[in-house]
Design a protein that fits this description.
By secondary structure, the chain is an alpha+beta fold. 26% of the residues lie in helices and 29% in strands. It is built from 10 helices and 20 strands. The strands form 3 sheets. Strands 5, 6, 7, 13, 14, 15, 16, 17 and 18 form a 9-stranded mixed β-sheet that branches. Strands 1, 2, 9, 10, 11, 12, 19 and 20 form an 8-stranded mixed β-sheet that branches. The protein has a 3-stranded antiparallel β-sheet with strand order 3-8-4. Helix 1 links the parallel strand 1 and strand 2. Helix 1 crosses helix 9, helix 3 crosses helix 6 and helix 3 packs across helix 9. The relative contact order is 0.19.
Length: 388
């Protein structure tokens, strides 16, 4: 049997693409997933991801209004709350690089006419007494910031796709892809499957398929870790009292209020433990948790306590750490996405865009910066720049 579309990967992006494709008239969609459906082994297995308008570049901020709209539609159709509004707080020290980072966030918001508040240290401490910061710390608050329940989002997209007739094939690893001028064959241990179009949302496993897809850009994988800490003051860190936040210091740390687990969650961005895909582990380590505890002891002492859980994910990054969101040059019926470690908040919109690229041949959303034709992809001498 042939399908109109095959999707490789049933994580946050693949499940979203399957849902949005399933809404197209005449679509017949197959999703191939190497693990369980709604599993905890991909990068969307944890509970929360920061959602925000605030970004270092308008390349992303331009997409955020449509991102929020896509989530609202999925919430309405699924009956699940996926977006939890907490407010978003970005903090900077007096270091030049830290202030420059926060200035870039402000510039992106201002360019898109999205309102924000500047906060001095005293204002931050007054509004959020959980923070123990020096007077040289400044902040920026954006009201719409919060979190996306990433696990629920996969469940919602999967459920809606199933209801629309999408077939899912879990526990099935893809061994190869054959791309022809007007069709594809996906080879698996359970047989070959043919389709008119293909979405590849394989995350950190994309590298195995790149030769078959005619792609040869550098894909860097970094094993990252989040840790959850319990304490006797968890009630001070609920979403009603405490925001999602990013601390733009010499190392960027980010964190969440208590949600989904009885603990405060935080991580540092770009831990930089570079791996091959088969070296991935699914349990975190005490050394990284100790580093994160040090941050809490300095800045959020009320959250300090025993480690409740350590969890991992993998950043799959092009050399500029921007998304790859495009169809393969010369094969407009094959679409590929790389999330670079910050795609969770955009998952539903990205799925919608992938569906538009394959069914309409184009999208109205401004995705040119994420093209497979940009220098970071096509120029082998491009120096990697990994940015939050």
């Amino acid at each position: 049997m042939g399908y109109t579309h095959i999707v490789i990967g049933a994580g946050a992006i693949g499940s979203a693409a399957a849902y949005w494709l399933s809404r197209r008239p005449g679509a017949s969609v197959l999703v191939v997933e190497q693990f369980d459906l709604v599993n905890t082994l991909n990068s969307s297995g944890d509970v929360s991801r920061i959602i925000r308008h605030a970004y270092h570049s308008t390349d992303y901020t331009k997409l955020t209004p449509a991102m929020f709209e896509a989530w609202a539609e999925v919430e309405e159709r699924s009956g699940l709350q996926l977006y939890v509004k907490t407010g978003g707080l970005d903090l900077a020290t007096s270091a030049e690089s830290s202030l420059a980072e926060l200035a870039a966030y402000r510039s992106a918001l201002a360019a898109e006419r999205i309102p924000y508040e500047d906060l001095a240290a005293a204002e931050i401490r007054s509004r959020y007494p959980q923070w123990r910061i020096d007077d040289d710390v400044t902040g920026m608050y954006q009201e719409a910031g919060g979190l996306i329940d990433i696990r629920k989002s996969v469940a919602a997209h999967t459920s809606l796709a199933l209801a629309n007739g999408v077939e899912f094939l879990p526990h099935t690893k893809v061994s190869g892809v054959v791309v022809r001028p007007d069709s594809v064959t996906v080879r698996t241990e359970r047989g070959d499957f043919d389709a008119d179009n293909l979405v590849v949302a394989a995350g950190s496993w994309l590298g195995h398929l790149m030769p078959d897809l005619g792609l040869d850009y550098r894909l860097t994988l970094s094993q990252e870790q989040v840790s959850y800490f319990t304490s006797q003051r968890l009630a001070d860190f609920t979403p009603q009292k405490f925001p999602s936040w990013i601390f733009h210091g010499e190392t960027a740390f980010y964190g969440f209020p208590v949600y989904g687990e009885p603990a405060v969650k935080l991580a540092r961005d770009m831990r930089g433990r570079f791996i091959a895909s088969d070296e991935r582990v699914f349990e975190g380590d005490d050394a990284e948790a100790g580093l994160l505890r040090g941050f809490l002891e300095q800045y959020l002492p009320g959250a300090v306590g025993p480690v409740y859980a350590n969890r991992t994910c993998v950043y799959d990054m092009a050399p500029d750490r921007d998304f790859v969101l495009d169809t393969v040059p010369g094969s407009p019926h094959v679409a590929v996405f790389n999330g670079a470690g910050h795609a969770g908040k955009f998952a539903s919109l990205v799925g919608k865009i992938l569906a538009e690229l394959l069914t309409d041949g184009a999208t109205a959303h401004p995705i040119e910066p994420f093209s497979l034709r940009r220098p970071a992809i096509t120029d082998p001498s491009f120096e990697p720049v990994f940015h939050l």
